[in-house]
Design brief:
Layout (H helix, E strand, L loop, with lengths): L1 E6 L3 E7 L5 E8 L6 H18 L9 E6 L2 E3 L4 E4 L7 E3 L1 H9 L3 E5 H12 L8 E6 L3 E7 L2 E2 L36 H13 L5 H6 L8 H9 L3 H25 L3 E5 L7 H14 L2 H5 L2 E4 L6 H10 L5
Parallel strand pairs: 1-4, 4-8, 9-12, 12-13
Antiparallel strand pairs: 1-2, 2-3, 5-6, 6-7, 9-10, 10-11
Helix pairs in contact: 3-10, 4-7, 6-7, 7-8
The chain binds zinc ion (ZN).
Zinc ion (ZN) binds next to loops.
Length: about 325
């Protein structure tokens, strides 16, 4: 048996998998990411104990645990250095903590790469040698596979597409720079674009839905407005899709992937976002590279991280 875990900002998703990576049981527990590291770790340990108990397994029947953790990691030493959505979470020796508690060998990687591994094992990237996986959620994360290898780089930050510079002086980014792709193409970025138009006084159905409480604006609402032919929502998705397209032109020209897969919650915007991106790619990317590359949605949804973590635990890519 292998245990695959996705430690997310809101939920801990756990999946128990057999030797063939068939899912035997899956469970979800609350993370309480704002309650501090001690509580989050306690919730994680309790959730692991529960799934083992419910399946009448002892710890020596689980060969390995794979765990996806958001944020920066020290992979060599098994330490979660920093996670932007977790309160009081710094330099957590997460492998040592779990191995001490359960005596099950544990491997970690970041959440985006675990999602990528999931799509590579059982999703839309099976058998692919060259592809790029992008998660569009609150922010924009990515992983790059070239010649059957997921690339990490000198400091594990290979393929940080979210920080491609799209404007020399654009929106400020948490990385210290400005004008980064993820500041425009992400749920947060798209909401900012819409809020800027609303602040300029442009008419929109969003006003009827929100009143003056623009804090409640979500990417999902903008998609809904698009479907109701609201001009502002259509403009926001069109613009976001075009900026995404220009970012992907750089990605295609740099990496020459066979597929670019889009996952994460905002992938639900689908063709509303991808259609304008495709047009930009067709016009601007190197022709032969663009013709060889498919832009597609990921298929595993929110289960990808858990499946990927299990596949890493099973050493499918070691
Ligand atoms: Zn940045």
């Amino acid at each position: 048996m292998y245990l695959g875990i996705d430690l997310g900002g809101t939920a801990i998703k756990l999946g128990l998998f057999d030797q063939e990576l068939v899912c035997i049981d899956k469970q979800t527990a609350a993370t309480n990411s704002l309650a501090g590291a001690a509580i989050v770790l306690k919730n994680l340990v309790t959730a692991i104990k529960k799934i083992l108990q419910d399946n009448q397994l002892t710890t020596n029947q689980v060969k390995r645990i794979g765990l996806g953790v958001p944020g920066l990691l020290d992979l060599q030493n098994g330490i979660s250095l920093f996670s932007p959505n977790f309160t009081d979470w710094e330099n957590i020796p997460i492998i040592a903590i779990l191995e001490k508690e359960f005596a099950i060998p544990t491997v970690i990687d970041n959440d985006v790469r675990m999602n990528l591994f999931g799509e590579w094992t059982l999703g839309a990237a099976q058998e692919l040698s060259d592809f790029v996986f992008i998660t569009l959620g609150t922010g924009l994360g990515a992983g790059v596979v070239i010649n059957h290898q997921l690339l990490y780089g000198a400091t594990n930050s290979f393929g940080e597409i979210g920080h491609l510079n799209m404007y020399r002086e654009g929106r400020p980014c948490a990385c210290g720079s400005s004008g980064c792709l993820g500041r425009y193409v992400s749920a947060r970025g798209m909401v900012k674009t819409a809020a800027d138009y609303l602040a300029e006084g442009q008419p929109s159905i969003l006003r009827d839905w929100l009143g003056e409480d623009w804090q409640q604006l979500t990417a999902k609402m903008i998609s809904k407005g698009f479907d109701q032919e609201d001009a502002l929502c259509q403009k926001v998705l069109q613009e976001t899709g075009e900026i995404f397209g220009f970012g992907l032109v750089n990605v295609i020209n740099l990496y020459n992937p066979k597929k670019i897969l889009i996952g994460g919650g905002m992938a639900k915007a689908g063709e509303r976002l991808l259609a304008p991106a495709r047009r930009v790619i067709q016009q601007h990317a190197l022709k032969i590279s663009a013709a060889a590359c498919q832009l597609e949605l990921a298929v595993l949804g929110s289960a990808a991280g858990m499946i990927g973590a299990a596949s890493v635990a099973a050493k499918k890519f070691a």
